[in-house]
Amino acid sequence: MPTPSADITLYLSARDKIIALPSGTRRRWAETALDLAGFAQSHDQIHTLSLDDQAQARQALTHLHQAARDCQVTVATHPRPYLGDIAEAIVAALPGHWMATVEPLRRRQDQHNLREFLWEAGSLYDLLERNRLGFAAILRDGGGTELLLIERPSDGLYMVGALTPSPDHVQVTMSAPRSVIASDARLAARFVHARLLPDYERAVHLSRLYEAEEDLRWAQEHEPERYDTADLGAALYRFRAHATAFIATLRANTPLSAEQDAFLDRVEDGLSLDALDDPDPEALADAGAVWLVDGEELIEMARAATPPASGTPAKPKALPTAVPPPPAMAATAPGLRR
């Protein structure tokens, strides 16, 4: 059995504070030492020490080393900048309204949980599996895109990769976008913007197309008369959700003829996309008819608007060889995955 351990790693933040990460099987002793030294604990259980008062900060660090010795806790200083600062610098440089959340990785299980949400089964996945990390950060754009940022222990480079979209958003079937590696936040933001996000959007777009085609083919084979059954309701809901994204993409990125623009208006109205989550039964029946009549043309237009790839896709996780029948509506209703 491994020897019980208690460790504290100190990170210097650019925001005039020290971040302390307690870890190890005897982590409670490390937390006790931090409490005795006067470190504050935030709502996400990250311990911090303000550097506004230099004399008080030096005294707290002295007390920390004394308390750590008494509690048999090892204290070490991380040589690189605090990952939260890097994450904030990256999201500040990305277009749109991105936010960063720092994830303390106190236990191996914390890394395992993150690994389960990774889209790519490549170097980033292997790193989470084999190396002991201190922090990770999740970068979110507020629209469903989530990226994972970690620091590679071997050389201090930063790696950013995609987390799988929520199944409520789309069931991904395409190859994962390749993670990017950079030496600093500025380069990381540039690579994310120029390579990772375009490949992410392309993979999500193609996954939506695949799912929309499968659902439409399935519905055409069954020639449905009612759209309030569980399977048909789920398939129609998915198609309407994907149609919302297709139409937004087409209008934003594709020169449209007057005829094409009128077609999109008709489909948008017919599918009741302005009441995606709560259409009335009559509107649902009308949406089902539009689905069968105009769904194929909308898919073809969306396929023609597929963004180009920026490079070779990364190795994806194992994907099912066949698409199962549409699940019940409850499985596809909007909600939070993580």
What does this structure look like?
Residues 305-338 are annotated as: Disordered. Residues 312-321, 329-338 have a biased composition (Low complexity). 47% of the residues lie in helices and 15% in strands. It is α+β, with helices and mostly antiparallel strands. It folds into 3 domains: 7-77, no CATH class; 83-196, no CATH class; 201-308 and 323-332. The chain has a 5-stranded mixed beta sheet with strand order 3-4-2-1-5. It is elongated, with a radius of gyration of 25 Å. The two termini are 33 Å apart.
Distance between the termini: 33 Å
Number of strands: 10
Helix content: 40-55%
The biggest beta sheet reads: 5 strands, mixed
- Per the principal axes of the C-alpha atoms, what is the gross shape? elongated
What is the string of SSEs from the N terminus onward? EEHEEHEHEHHEEEEHHHHH
Strand content: 5-15%
On the 0 to 100 scale, the average pLDDT is 85
Strands of the biggest beta sheet: in what spatial order? 3-4-2-1-5
The helix count comes to 10
- Uncertain ranges: 315-338
Give the tally of structural domains: 3
What does the radius of gyration come to? 25 Å
> Given the helix and strand composition, which structural class is it?
alpha+beta
